Amino acid sequence: MIQLPHPLLTAMHCGTAAEPGGECCNQRSEMDVFLMIRRHKTTIFTDAKESTTVYELKRIVEGILKRAPEDQRLFKDEQLLDDSKTLGDYGYTNQTARPQAPATVGLAFRLTGDTFEPLQVEPFSSPPELPDVMKPQDSGTTANEQSVQ
Description:
149 residues, alpha+beta, six-stranded mixed sheet, 6 strands
């Protein structure tokens, strides 16, 4: 006897709880974009869909940093992002914002009234230089081989 999978489990395999026999898998799947939202020394890694609006991205930030969307400004490079446009409208795609190389979005907060802080993103720190004992040897012999000779 062949056992078929449960219809609800089959309907959920594309990530949505569609009705059994639904068309969830026949629709064009929306591609994920991977983002680094940066402000000063803070970096938030998140993912969203290309069709996510800038306002929806601000809601994601609100859930993490507890600052209302109205008190946030998001930037691509130095360009202020419009709340009603999508990430795809600004060129954030699965090709430009990959898991291994997420795209950067700048974040600035409201200070008072209509005044927002300037966009400021600190550069990542560099690791310290390796100590000499950890640097690769230029000669063809290893330290163990040298001590044996």
